[in-house]
Amino acid sequence: xxxxxxxxxxxxxISPIGHNKDDFWAQLMEGRSxxxxxxxxxxxxxxxxxxxxxxxxxxxxxxxxKNARRMDLFVQYGCAAARIAVEDAGLQxxxxxVERTGVWIGSGIGGIDTFEKQHAVxxxxxxxxxxxxxxxxxxxxxxxxxxxxxxxxxGPNGCTVTACxxxxxxxxxxxxxxxxxxxxxxxxxxxxxxxxxxxxxxFCALKALSTSNEEPLRSCRPFxxxxxxxxMGEGAGIVVLEEMEHACQRGAHIYAELIGYGxxxxxxxxxxxxxxxxxxxxAFRMALTEAGIKPEEVDYINAHGTGTxxxxxxxxxxxxxxxxxxxxxxxxxxxxxxxxxxLGAAGAIELIATTLAMKNSTVPSTLNLENPxxxxxxxxxxxxxxxxxxxxxxxxxxxFGGHNAALIIRKAR
Length: 413
Prior knowledge:
- The chain is an alpha/beta fold.
- The protein has helices at residues 21-30, 65-68, 73-89, 112-125, 134-138, 142-151, 166-179, 197-205, 244-249, 278-291, 309-323, 336-339, 346-360; strands at 6-14, 36-37, 50-51, 101-106, 157-158, 185-192, 235-243, 256-265, 300-302, 331-333, 362-363, 386-387, 392-399, 403-411.
- The protein starts with 5 loop residues before the first strand and ends with a strand.
- The model has no long low-confidence stretch (mean pLDDT 97).
């Protein structure tokens, strides 16, 4: 059976810079970062005191409060973003559709807030005081499970856990399910809620986080010589993927066509990237091959761009290895300086940003890029957003464990 074409018809997000595509895009265009001082717990003993928190989130706007009480925050974010994406797609799930509609939502860490709180309960009051909902609230697959319950869909359902690549890998797996005729519609993406004492503390112990606490808005500096680490973010990004004929038959608005997916491993180290960038480059080539396009056809890359010393240098090297001289002609930017690093949701929210850039023929800038690292010498858009017609774009994610993922989209035609 020939591969089927897959299109993006719905966008949903709960993010530090907006809970709908219009607000999200406006913040990107205005250069307004969602990074600020953490106000959820006392950070006096923490080296990093900043994060990109989700604000003004009212769970009852999306989920019945009685159901939300039995969900960790990462599941609440995922359910809310899925609801927004389905509504944006104008998708009416009919009884005859439920077995051909699936859910694939990744999370890098899962319910760490629930774990922390329940561990404290057990230490203070004993094991008999643990909530019977502890495990169902905590496990990483529960966003995918709860979204399926919420929507009543029985198609393929799963959760890819590949650290910072979870969202991209989940969308890639959903893409393949539709291409291989296992589903007609997939609700897919990533969700994360790790701005907790242990979440922040653990990354502080790794010395991975920026400690520019006095200047939160300037703390995330991808590709800049003075970058000092990433800034934690949270939230969810969900897309509705559909087989093209299915979308056209119901008159759906098509944002873009998803045409390529690559997934590889560095096989070198648990947290440091391969210094040669071989795994990332292989993922890029794999996505290009599946898309059936040449490197010089890519107009824009939404980079992983964490603002850590090694990631930005190695990612730049991988781009240059694959795209050659064309690397200097296309646009590259990182949107983590707006949303923070949303971990398992990062790849999904960044694919949404890439899709909106294509739709609006405008590329978001990379904030705080004032002193470019000589080893990061591509056009990362340091000034205002750049107007450009985008026909083909790539979004990539590089995760702990050496996981690499790349997604390629093409303007709808």
